[in-house]
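Re: Re: ligand-bound prediction request (bumping)

Still looking for help on this. To restate: I need the protein modeled with ME8 bound, output as structure tokens. Inputs repeated here so nobody has to scroll up.
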Amino acid sequence: MADLSKPIYITTPLYYVNDELHIGHATTTLYADTIARFWRACGRPVLFLTGSDEHGQKIHKAATAAGTTPRGFADRIVSKFFELWESLDVQFDIFIRTTDPFHEAAVQKVFERLRDNDKLYKSAYKALYCVECETNYTDKDLLEGKCPIHKTTPQVIEEENYFLKLSEFTDTLKQRIEAHPDCIVPEPRRNEILGKLREGLNDTSVTRVQFDWGVPLPWEKQHVIWVWTDALVNYISALGWPDANTLPTDAFDGRSRGAHHTPKGVKPFEYWWPESVHLVGKDILWHHSVIWWSELIGAGIAPPKQVFAHGWWTVEGDKMSKTLGNVIRPGDIAGKYSRDALRYHVLREGPQRGDSDWRQAAFVTRYNADLANGLGNLMNRSLNMLHKYKGGVAPPETAFADTRFEGLRQSLIARVNGLCDTLIQRVAGFDLDGALEAVFDLVREANQFVNETAPFKLAKDPARGQDLDASLHTLLEVGHALAYGVKAFLPDASGRIAAQLGIDTSTSLPQALKWGRVKAGQQANQPEPLFARIEAE
Ligand code: ME8
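Reply:
Sorry for the wait, this slipped through. Here it is.
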């Protein structure tokens, strides 16, 4: 079971500012936001970092094409990132930009350490470089001469560069992954990296000379540090590595939310880094394990605790691409159907384990079945009956006189009382779909309970007043549990359920997500539909 007193530092990739964000980026960010919200709701100390990757050839190229400077271009796109995260209510604690001066200084310090530890050397460089990936390939990596991800012909680059002695780290990385099976999850991804390590690592170029949009090497300024070995350092520069007493972004208006809790007198890097979890897509797992950990170990810094790499979205069976015109924009989905509808689809149907296909028909089916007919209908009919038969006032807790109904109530009590532990266990294992499955098992059982106990029939029989109270009280307890149960996953619905029940959800989850929290005499508000059904489109 997760230790709720232990901090957790959750990061997303820093997205490139060459373009606006799409559903793929929103997916990683919503996974991170959900996990952050969940642990905060449990009272666990959380620090959630996101940001933007602004250096490199790819951004330079996009800025030039737009007729502007890389910095001006980045400023414009970053403001769109902010707008999107705000509109989706993503509650990051820190937003870092790789052009932040404190970050650039940290990157230079890491490189000085690599030099001092004899992990760098200069050599002639001839390589195949994919600008879209900002990554080197060898002939054997290519598929029919093209980048395996972007299917484009890589550039041939010849220059004298600094190399990182990646080959030295092969055994260290293998041993680390074998000794800490959870350091890369899920397991197939870990095996993928182990497989590549068994083939051995080649040293890799980590500076460039024919290009200047990046962090200069401190001792040879004509060299610019490779964009990946620059950007990855954000995860520690954001914490003020090596020895700042406060988070550097605390000085930036609006880029640090100030909701995190680094204990007084402790350096943020020392407090958060040992509990770091990087969330990434599978395309950049190589960079986040092999490259990043080698860079860290080479500089004398411990690698992160864990990397979770999710799969890939396609759209209606096709690769998502501007050329095909099938790019899913998260803001459009949230605007049309609500941000909870977007979150729900991403969490239930998204590529958490394997790859996933975004299908509009599946979106509508799941939304109608689970949100409109499931959760929405349960809350609506429970509160309608409470108003109709009890003036909206909670009856006292009582058992059913009818023993069969009492069996149904006991089953719901057990389910509610077991829910918090199940959620903790599943979120700790990055199983957000499984966590929601447990919540919706409760919704399904409660809807079944309404059908079976039929309070609308009990209300017609004055002799069955006790059973009517038992039924309505049970439904209020379930409503209370659901307001807490969906808090991290469907934050807007949680707030609306709480408002309708006349409760707040500020108590910590382990204390509040259990049976017996409804007070007799508590007044509920009028129900309002939580999710309107989507009719045929
Ligand atoms: O790689 N399905 O940034 P990026 C699922 N700047 N996830 C997807 C996706 C898809 N179709 N498309 C994108 C970079 N993603 C670097 C990171 S970190 C120090 C530097 C998500 O803008 C997924 O998380 O290309 C993927 O890893 C990330 O966006 C790539 O974002």
